[in-house]
Fold:
Amino acid sequence: MSRSARGEFAYQTVYRYLERLIGEADRDGEGRLPSLRDLARRLRVSLATVQSAYSLLEHEGRVRSVPKSGYFVRACLKDEAQAANSRPQPLSALHVPLSCSAALERALLLQERRLSRQSACEESGLRRAVGGAQLRNALAARYTRSSRLCWSAEDVHLATDVQALLQTLLCALHLRGATALVASPCCWRLLRGLQLAGLRVLEVPLDAECGLDLEVFSRLLAREPVRLVVMPAYLSLPTGRLVTELEQRKIAALLAEHPAWLLENDLDSELCFAAPANRRLRDWLEPKGVLVLGSLEAAVGAEAPYAFVLCRHAGVAEKFAQRGFLLPPLRQQALAQLYVKGEVDCHLAPLRREREARMQLLCQQVQLHLGERVVFCMPQGGQALWVRLHQPLASNRAFEVLAGSDLLIVPGDRFSLQGRFHQCLLLVWEGGNEQNLQHALRLLDHVLQEQVPPEDQG
Structure:
């Protein structure tokens, strides 16, 4: 993903530009924002980059999309907007940018330029149909494992982002107002999506070994009218822990006794440091009750912020067709080619090694500078380190001190709707200068030391 002169990713530059437009809309009363195509042409960036910035603002509740009409500033009081802007850490900080191999991104853009020069599909409508069909076919083939666990292009439904996909999917399955069980801590995008769709969310906590507390899970299934269960496919983020095959089988055995949809979170499996194992939670269940949620962003980066779901329910296809998500057809074709030709898997192997090396360095420095103040385990995937503090952190002070540093901190309670994990932090370091990381950790250590009562410091 390209960076601007000031070191930002392209979508961050677009995001900041849109923030200014939103501020002007608050003053002038004009709520309509530029279209994807107009803004891409104005800022000379790709449609996918603009879509990523708009999706982030939509996640934060600052803009709303109206099908076939465009994007609009959400109506709110001016003082509320000012209060939101004065928070030490905006919700945008919860969207952790996913790193992407520069080689894979170059391959994507080259493929897109090559396709744009072809004249086989001159009509935009035909091009859109071809691009979508190719990408759905590629994803169906990627997820097919056997004659029993097979998917077709008709089972794959694409959307512009995770939030929009969840709202469409849950509406199609008539789950609005239903009760959902979620493994906690949970991806913020999923929690927010379930909340926006009007679901009642119950969280299953961790046990002493940081795995899913199966006793609590079993009790909740037995006594609550659960219609949707959200579980990681393999990699559980933000903790970065892999779900073992034994755990998968135990979870599947409990789900087999209670009729409910399984929404398997496969958004992050590509972020494993080792190649993901063959077994997923869905492998132990009947396919007709399984929904597989995935994203192209984990593998390709923010130039492909699109989400998809694999589902065999007939009503879902109809609802997605009615929603009419507009995804750039050339980008879809280029992504399909990357998967079909094996370029994605070819680039993922070195990218995993790079992520693991960066995480090992982060863990070493955290142990060196914060060792006595935090508890953590080296994660097995992801791009952030989940740590538990011996005492809650004064977040506002920490955000103020670390502002502008290479280290991003996200409060643990943001990964729970029920206020859990007050003593946890997610530490995000995208790499770069090791000395800058050390400086940021020393600042964080100083903030933590300020909170220790004098009698304990002696």
